[in-house]
Amino acid sequence: MTNAGAHIHQPRSDAMDMSGTRPIDPAAGIPPTSSAATADGTPAAPFDPAGSRSLSTARWALALALFLVLSFGLAWLVAAPLWVDGGLANPLAPQLAVAMMLTPTIAVAVVVATVDRGRKPLRRLGLWPLTPAPRFIGYCAIALFGTIAFVFAALPVGALLGVYPADFVTFSGFRELIEQSFARAGITGDAAALPAPIALLVAAQFLNVLIGALINTLPALGEELGWRGWLLPHLLRLGLVPALLLSGLIWGLWHAPLILLGYNYPGAPGWLALLLMVGVCTVSGAVFGWLRLRSESVWPAAIAHGTFNAAAGLSIVFVARGHEVDTVHAGILGWSGWLVPLVLVIVLAATGQFRPSAAWAERAGRSRMFAG
Fold first, then answer.
1. In Å, how far are 7, 79, 234, 363 from 73, measured between CA atoms?
2. Which residues are registered as beta bridge partners of 16?
3. What Gene Ontology terms describe what this protein does at the molecular function level (predicted)?
4. How many CB atoms lie within 10 A of CB 365?
């Protein structure tokens, strides 16, 4: 999760599957264990979106180990020039950060081509098909607008907790930021007057977030094919909760080559910065995982990831004049910001919304992995 500028839907008791074809019964809760039988009395096949249960334990572990070695190793290899020369001040840092986002996809490609081979890899990774269209479009919209909503919601939460010095009325910090940019450009006098009312300029930032989200989706897909496309379904063999926690932990630690250089948490000790990154990746990754499981597609997760990166910078728009944003404590990256996606995950779990879509579950059967 590299920031370019980072969750949504309140479940209803009468919620409909996004395909619009069948109601979801919230009372059904988590699917029954694998002892459930089909209509003819035979045991139901385990729910296995990634085909991981068709692998022996040894091959399953080998596939996981190979993915981790490649994704982490390639990430460090791509970031190596930053460690050799200049850190984040290296002029190639932005390009290398984007290149690093592609390493999980490279790792998945190798794993799927060698150890974890199976039929229909595009379907298994959630790349295709993009149907049913109503469900796919619905979850993409939730990913886009819902992520903006919960990233923004982290700001008033931080303000209420006293860790984010906010100005939601006069936008004094944003005004100061514009004035400083004019001064650096040598613009003074009447020319330095704001080109539009400050409220309009603030509103324009949300438009920038939408544009940035669309641009960020493709590089974010480079990560998401790894984390939610392959890793999360692969780990479901261990149970839903372990899969969500482990995939979040792995995702957070993968950022180490940049985080230890001061990325996202400048000034924080490396160990603390990495711990914080693991935290935000775990809670946010659970939301992205919900999108993956419910939509049967990796695209909503990629859109949410790209939107997260685009929207994370909103914290500097609403900060009060004379203050800086301490990302250890404030914004979606800080501990106070985690509360919003955490509450969302609790609501989704309590209402049984982490079940896979009805169509997906019917194709693969149901398993005790969702009892985890």
1. 29, 10, 20, 36
2. 23
3. endopeptidase activity
4. 16
Q: Six-digit token pair at 171?
A: 């936008």
Whether residue 95 has pLDDT greater than 70:
yes
Please say whether the beta carbons of 18 and 358 come within 8 A. no
Contact present, 355 and 292 (Cβ < 8 Å): no
Instruction: Transcribe 184-236 into DSSP letters.
Output: HTT--GGGGS-SS-HHHHHHHHHHHHHHHHHHHHHHHHHHHIIIIIIIHHHHG
35-68 exposure pattern, b = at least 16 Cβ within 10 A, e = fewer: eeeeeeeeebebbbbbbbbebeeeebebbbebbb
CA separation for the pair 175, 166 (Å, rounded): 13
On the CB side of 205, how many CA atoms lie within 13 Å of its CA?
20
pTM of the model: 0.83
Q: Which residues contact 116 (CB under 8 A, 6 or more apart)?
A: 50, 51, 52, 55, 59, 63, 230, 234
Q: Is 372 helix (H, G, I), strand (E, B) or coil?
A: coil
Give the Cα-Cα-Cα angle 98, 101, 103 (nearest 5 degrees). Answer: 125
Q: Which residue has the higher pLDDT, 61 or 54?
A: 61
Nearest to 146 by CA among 252, 260, 287, 29: 287
Lowest mean pLDDT among 29-38, 190-199, 286-295: 29-38
Q: What is the pLDDT of residues 188-235, one digit of tens each?
A: 766 567 878 999 999 999 999 999 999 999 999 999 999 999 999 999
